[in-house]
Amino acid sequence: MSSQTESAAPGGAEVVTYREAIRLALDDAMAADETVLLLGEDIAKAGGPFKTTVGLYEKYGAERVFDTPIAENGFCGIALGMALTGLRPVVEIMFSDFLPTAFDAIAMELPRWRFMSGGQTSRRSPCAPAAAGAAASAPRPPAPASPGSCSSTA
Length: 154
Prior knowledge:
Blueprint: H1 18-32, E1 36-40, H2 56-60, E2 65-67, H3 72-84, E3 88-92, H4 103-116
Helix pairs in contact: 3-4
């Protein structure tokens, strides 16, 4: 058993921490598919802020496990481009508090590609794109409900 394991579960299954389970799943995915790569802040040589990528840089190299600058929206956008070209990027956002800084790439750009590609790409997430509207148009807030106000239909 690894240093992360505590004991064996009933039936002889190995008990691992969530962190180790994530690292093992990433390792399995990278071993099975050369198009899977990891990007995020301090995940390469440092092994990630929570050590979920320890050893993966050494095993798969700098071309598949690499550090990004502190620019979540930028590297999420880069991951979108990678995915559109056939790669399978896994992005590690250091803390969930940083997700809003990546909101544009995740919630605005990614969903549009399904429509701009004629349905040839898709996105799996708990959020769905708007049911109507031009794919490349800027998002807009709902029209005001007051009588006589200017509004447009989506």
